[in-house]
Amino acid sequence: MDLIFYFYNQLDILIEFFLYGFISKARNNRASVKNGFSDDLG
After folding, report:
1. Where are the transmembrane segments (predicted)?
2. What phi and psi values does residue 34 have, to the nearest 5 degrees?
3. Which of 26, 39, 34, 14 minimizes the C-alpha distance to 6?
4. What are phi and psi of 27, to 5 degrees?
5. Is the pTM higher than 0.85?
6. What's CA 32's distance to the chain center, in Å?
7. Is residue 31 within 8 Å of residue 23, measured between CB atoms?
């Protein structure tokens, strides 16, 4: 039972990490669109 809870906790941390990365990437993309892709080009 403890192993299942441990695995679920690790999975929850991974999901939060990927969601946070996806959200921050979307925010950066939106910001670079505002800046005319200057950040993407260099």
Report:
1. 6-23
2. -65, -35
3. 14
4. -65, -40
5. no
6. 17
7. no
Give buried/exposed letters for 24-42 (b at 16+ CB in 10 A, else e): eeeeeeeeeeeeeeeeeee
The continuous run of DSSP H or E covering 28 comes out as helix 2-34
- Which single residue is written with the structure tokens 């669109």? 33
Average pLDDT, integer, range 2-17 = 90
Cβ–Cβ < 8 Å for 39, 31: yes
Give tens-digit pLDDT for 12-35. Answer: 999 998 888 888 888 887 776 666
